[in-house]
Specification:
Helix content of chain A: 55-70%
Helix content of chain B: 10-25%
CATH architecture of the largest domain in chain B: 6 Propeller
Number of strands of chain A: 4
Oligomer: heterodimer
Number of helices of chain B: 4
Structural class of chain B: mainly beta
CATH class of the largest domain in chain B: Mainly Beta
Distance between the termini of chain A: 4 Å
Distance between the termini of chain B: 4 Å
Largest sheet of chain A: 4 strands, mixed
Shape of chain A: elongated
Strand content of chain A: 5-15%
Number of domains of chain B: 2
Strand content of chain B: 35-45%
CATH topology of the largest domain in chain B: Neuraminidase
Number of strands of chain B: 31
Amino acid sequence: MKYLPVAGKLCAVLFTALVLAACSGSDTKDQDDAAVAAAAAEEAAAQAKAAQMAELQRLEDAAAAVGNVFYFEFDSSALTQESINQLNAHIAVLRQETDRNVRLEGHADERGTREYNMALGERRANSVRDYMVANGIATYRIETVSYGEERPVAYGSGESNWSQNRRVELK
Amino acid sequence: MKRLLVVLFALPLALGALAARAQLTIEITEGVDNPTPIAVVPFAWQGPGVAPEDMAAVIDGDFARSGLFAPVDRADMLGRPSSEQEVFYRDWRAIDTDYLLIGRASVSEGQMRVEYELFNVLRQTRVLRGGHLGPASEARMLAHRVADDVYEHIRGIRGAFATRLLYVSVTRVPGGKDYFRLTLADSDGARPIVLLESREPILSPTWSPDGREIAYVSFESSRPAIYRQELATGRREQLTSFKGLNGSPAWSPDGNTLAMVLSKDGSPDIYLMDLASKRLTRVTTHYAIDTEPTWMPDGRSLLFTSDRGGKPQIYRYDLRSRNVERVTFEGTYNARARIAQDGRNMVVVHQQDDRFHIALHDLKTGRLYVLTSTELDESPSIAPNGSMVLYATKHSGRGILAAVSVEGGFKFRLPAREGDVREPAWSPYMTR
């Protein structure tokens, strides 16, 4: 998932405020009062927006902190409690940012046959997808693809390597 | 035969002279007790110039890899006959060889002619003579044909030396994207040609029954898709790119249908694609994983892997009755079946004590024999004559190809000079 720069949105808000300020050069008191009220409302809106941006930034930071890789047990597609905690952080961001789509890439370790592992990787990606959908993320926003055992992170054998390869990556 | 040679000749031209970095070599790791001694005398070269290929060495290599023959060392030969008049049986009895193979090769207008004679040393008679003609650039293939003739005469079953292999080789790029190469080579690993190179995975290469086309899965579009490719022209066609899995292509014996795995309708299921109309028929409809289809030689049923019983096992689907029956019961993991042309010997990946081996399952008796002793063995592929099983394994942390005789007694390795090698697919007999 790509975190769009918050700075870009702040710029848009500031620009709107500047345009409104430039338009408020009126002579009459009523008009002045109206302008003041409008400016106040605008300022309140800007503050609310800023607060919202700050909240989004906080959620994004939290999601970034837990990482975008979820690990699995051997021959299993069940989400671990740790994965669920991680996913919740990402779901919180996706609920705010409804125009963002994600790609879930499922992977397996090298044990067993390649095409069976391809299916296992898909089952893992689907397991993550289903959890996201159950928590309010629309299906059409989620693309899944399985790489099976074809894209290992750790090339060696043994559980220390295999456990790093049984994963779903959120992108 | 002529048509095949044209096809083979055109192949390097069509594909360009791509560098093949994964040339395979042979290391015999386990022999059999009583291989038949055979002396292959260096073939006489009837000019011009120098012989383009040591035909006898190619044939020696074939015999050694069969496990059934023990080629005589050239240094032990007391003569170098190239015609029947020059053969003195006592010279060959003296070095205890059962058979003697001699031959001659010549080239005229780009065409190579090779002639050979096989002698039974004990009976002191010539038992076979023959010849082959083909482009000089196919000298090695002509030598393999001679080896096939001799093998068939002595063993009573057709030789499979004049065949080819497909395999995937990978150059690791830790922290980055690996290089994947789909490679075509002779059955002895010689003359490798890269058919496709990609930074995205390539897997599940397979042959059409006439050996003219291949199919495989490539992720080059960032998603899996099944492609078919004509070897002679390099022309290729994308057959599928559905949402979800697109995998395990398997050609029907009549060449008209491609079995495959798609998960577009939910879980991975087996589908059949009519190659003329591209029409799809769904074969399995289970919520479990159904994958790795392969055809029985009569084309009437499919074997496939399914975990519908909890763990992956081999099942059989009858295309007429649509019945599914479980085939394997021994152990907790039996997957990716391949069946010999006899319709009886099935090889699978079998888990035993947390290790993955290649096992032979006799469909007639239901008995299972573990053939290999290495770990992480996978992707078994049977020679068209049913004699050997080629598979992928790990050796010193690298993916290599290895082979074992169906009887289990004879083993050899085909390590690549560099990189990982995997997913061998042995071609059918090439049309003569």
